[in-house]
Amino acid sequence: MDDYMKDLKDGSEKTLEYLETELANIHTGRATTGLVSDVLVDVYGTKSPVKQVANITVTDSRSIAIQPWDKGNLVQIENALRDSNLGFGIVNSGDAIRVNIPDLTEDRRNEYVKLAKEKAEEAKVGIRNARHEVWEKTKKAKNEGAISEDDLYRREDEINKYVDLMNKKIEEIFNAKEIELREV
Fold this sequence. Notes:
This protein is of the alpha+beta class. The protein is built from four helices and six strands. The chain has helices at residues 2-24, 74-83, 106-143, 149-182; strands at 40-43, 46-49, 54-60, 63-68, 89-92, 97-100. The strands form two sheets. It has a four-stranded antiparallel β-sheet, covered by helices on one side. A two-stranded antiparallel sheet has the order 1-2. The longest helix has 38 residues, at 106-143.
């Protein structure tokens, strides 16, 4: 039975990591490498994230420098950034790309809060799906006689407490991001 809870915990941890990664990519008005690192660039016949073809550094709170390892990829990186519709100013200096982060408008902040809320809801759905899988395994074990009915209800309580804890963590992560997004 402990394997079932381990599966739930592993799935939940992966869901939280995914949520944190997704929220890190939401623009807060401050420059971070996560804003551009996963933009896909068509280089050498395949699509690769910028982080795999260039060095990305934050030069100040409003700008990011992208230094491609192969200067021949400079135009492809610039085009990919423009096509991504991130709303950033992009300047190609000939050997690097500078990404300028504009101030966020109130409407844009609200859009990003809404997007963050959607990502948090996706994470909650992921947790519910993991709970459902574990609960089905637990019921199957009860039907096969591997556990008693008392163990079934004890396990249900344990699963629900853990899911409630994970949902609370998701809310905390979302609330922190919302505060960050609303900060002017």
